[in-house]
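Table 4 source record.
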Amino acid sequence: MRGFTRRLVAVAAAASCATVVVSAPAQAHGNDKYAKVAYFTQWGIYGRDFQLADVQNSGGAAKLTHLNYAFGPVTADGVCASADPWADWQTPFSAENSVDGVADVAGQPISGNLNQIAELKKKNPKLKALISLGGWSGSAYFSDAVLTDASRKKLVSSCIDLWIKGNLTGLPEGVAAGILDGIDLDWEWPASSGNDGNIIRPEDKQNFTLLCAEFRTQLDKLSRKTKKKYLLTAFVPAAPAKIDVGFEVKKIFKYLDFATVQGYDFHGTWEPKANQQSALRVPAGAPDNPDFSVENTINHWIKGGAPKKKLILGVPYYGQGWTGITSSVNNGLFQTATGPAPGVFANGTEDYKTLKKLTTQGFSVHRDIRNGHAWLFDGKTFWTYDDPAVVFQKALYIRAKGLGGAMMWSLDGDDERASLTKSISAGLS
């Protein structure tokens, strides 16, 4: 087992350091057998200073098949809107921050992230881009918006008009047409709790299916006009209870091209004990029974009737952290903490690119290779996270299980060499 661990780490490290020829990205996409889906956050261009140019220049874009742009909210009026038009289509980018290396100029038809996505697709012709609707803080009004046939038609029509037909407020008609290739539904969560204030109804379960059907109908209608296929995907939960109450599993996959499955946030600092947040299998000695794991989640979706090839496993590019641990038993795993560990942007969470540096600051890496998770511990502070070795192991799990690929939340958490993205891609090549 120790020999296998060393080989796994070595292979993942080699994959993350592999040389990528960015000038020929079309070859990198090839005829991909597996989907490699990654989220780019709209707000990341601000405080995080993470641009789509970084996705290109790191070599990460050449390793992806799909880019999900997050997020577009559903409003109280039951329509799609932009959460930030400045970021989406107004802000000008400098040459340094532009995918094509050319600065935006006054008077050009469209600027912002959408124009950068268009530039990214020119560099990577096989890459598909989708708008993700909802998200944790943008799902409050889904339930109202899908309550009737008329309201569903209204919502879907508005989403397609804005994001797919590209009719952006204040700009010429159709200026963004062709930039986005589909819709990703990130309703968190139908018929069960999500962010505080979300409207929830028992009939959300059936209405989510009807929403998928309406999107498929209207997208297919547009396809017949444009001769282009439009994708429909969804982000779905890990918890069996949320799956059962919110999804007609067999029905929704008649309309979805695939679903990305939450493979993280199994545990976090809302709990008092340091724990895994994204393990492949439940570790020995886990304090909760039943407990969350990738395998338990995937098996529940399959048992419910989800086609394996339409299940895309989500992996985190961030970690969950606790501090105030006084016991070194299990190298901190399952030990009681006093609270969340300090983080750059929020206490209790931290990007992989920051966590990787902790090994030079007194932290040791610990692995449970059998159950597929890793953590950092310095005797007081504990971080559960995925590094290149863990995500490579998950890629091998995806292949062995017959799943459709991997999804990554989110690109801004990776390091400047796109080490995690490259490791996943190597495992799925």
